Amino acid sequence: MSTGPGPGGQLGTFYEQVGGHETFTKLVAEFYRGVASDPPLRALYPEADLGPAEVRLRQFLEQYWGGPGTYSEQRGHPRLRMRHHPFKVTPAQRDRWLLHMMAAVDTLELPPANDLLLRDYLERAAHSMVNSLDEE
């Protein structure tokens, strides 16, 4: 997200408006706490340790919202659909992902305009990751 007046006339990037690294670290840590306790969703993550996935998601979100470009520096263009293609992502898994992500957003207690913007993006991104209707 580019610099300029944000929701409510705030200046700076969305990343800066919501508290930067600390906020995104909390968001992603809360999200992965939910993932770790949800066996059907946890099955989407091949690594035994969720730590690397947590770092990647945090770096991606920070970059997307106007923070450091570390994600692209280390991993190249995000290409979200391509990166998720090897995994069967169903509507049910999307819904579980959103359940935990929205619960994590709740913990941030963001100003209403920022909260709405973040939730809207996450909802759209989650829907775009579905690549299978096979619920088996």
TrEMBL record:
GO terms for molecular function: heme binding; metal ion binding; oxygen binding; oxygen carrier activity. Keywords: Heme, Iron, Metal-binding, Transport. PROSITE patterns: GLOBIN_FAM_2. CDD domains: TrHb2_Mt-trHbO-like_O. InterPro entries: GlbO/GLB3-like (IPR044203), Globin-like_sf (IPR009050), Globin/Proto (IPR012292), Globin_bac-like_CS (IPR019795), Hemoglobin_trunc (IPR001486). Pfam families: Bac_globin. Heme binds at residue 127. The keyword Transferase does not apply. Gene3D superfamilies: Globins (1.10.490.10). Its cofactor is heme. Belongs to the truncated hemoglobin family. Group II subfamily. This is Hemoglobin. It comes from Pedococcus badiiscoriae. The lineage of its organism: Bacteria, Bacillati, Actinomycetota, Actinomycetes, Micrococcales.
